[in-house]
Design brief:
This protein is mainly β. The chain has no helices and seven strands. A hairpin with an 8-residue loop joins strand 6 and strand 7.
């Protein structure tokens, strides 16, 4: 799994019948991963371009309702509301979300 930002939605003109009704995104990882460039991910949660999301990599469990024989390697499984470092430094609210309050100063 990784956290990434949806950079664009892929509009498919013609696709195999198995892919009908699926929405595809390009997702750019927000942290170090073992590959270069964005990942094509199937949306399972109603994400939008610009959202910060959690992406699961195949193989998927049966709860995602993605058939095992469908050649999908990544799926958007959550929309991130905010990221918080353990110290509260580096908080990053999701676009459109209210920013989290700042941590109290140390005594």
């Amino acid at each position: 799994m990784f956290v990434g930002q949806v950079t664009c939605q892929i509009e498919v003109g013609k696709a195999h019948d198995s892919f009908r009704g699926l929405k595809f995104f390009l997702v750019e990882a927000e942290h170090k991963v073992d590959w270069d460039g964005p990942v094509v991910a199937v949306d399972t949660v109603g994400a939008r371009t610009g959202d910060l999301v959690v992406v699961a990599l195949a193989p998927f469990g049966p709860t995602l309702n993605i058939p095992a024989d469908l050649p999908v390697e990544a799926a958007v499984v959550a929309i991130v509301r905010s990221l918080q470092a353990a110290s509260g430094v580096g908080e990053r609210p999701q676009s459109g979300a209210a920013p989290a309050s700042a941590p109290a100063p140390a005594a």
